[in-house]
Amino acid sequence: MYEKILRVNQQPIKQKTFGEKRVILRKIKISLDMKDIEVFYENEYIVYSIDRSKALFEVIWKDTTFLREEVFKEIIIKQKESTLFYRPRKVLIDSTFFDFAIDPSLQKWFDDQIFSATIKSGIQKVGIVISKDLFAQVSVEQTMEEGQGIMHLTRYFRTYQEARYWLLN
Description:
- The protein is of the alpha/beta class.
- It is built from four helices and nine strands.
- The strands form two sheets. Strands 4-5-6-7-8-9 form a six-stranded mixed beta sheet, with helices on both faces.
- Helix 1 packs parallel to helix 2 and helix 2 crosses helix 3.
- The protein is globular, with a radius of gyration of 16 Å.
């Protein structure tokens, strides 16, 4: 494994190579229309941020190649707590680099943790940027289908920009 730092629009971008698999870990680009975004939690797998002025909670998944189930659960519990604390109306989940398959028992656990918090917090719309990993994407969709129609409108997008535009308009 090796790591390389690039500069794109003056933002550092890390590229990691695991064998033949190249993964790009990107920083959140804060532009003029995103000036109110506050990153309040980050670890090696996830970035959580909130834009209070737009009632928008963002979940940006990084490379999850080495994510373990117990760490996934810790991340989801943090998401639940954050959702109840900030009470956003819109959620953007960028799962472009999410490649962790959520098995059925973990999907059930996720449902028990997240959907009750989503209802309590008043979330109305969820935009999800699809994963590049087909198996991970299918597991994400199966997980989200469990709660469909219960509390919010969910749409899937190919890019972060498309999802953000839909959520804010």
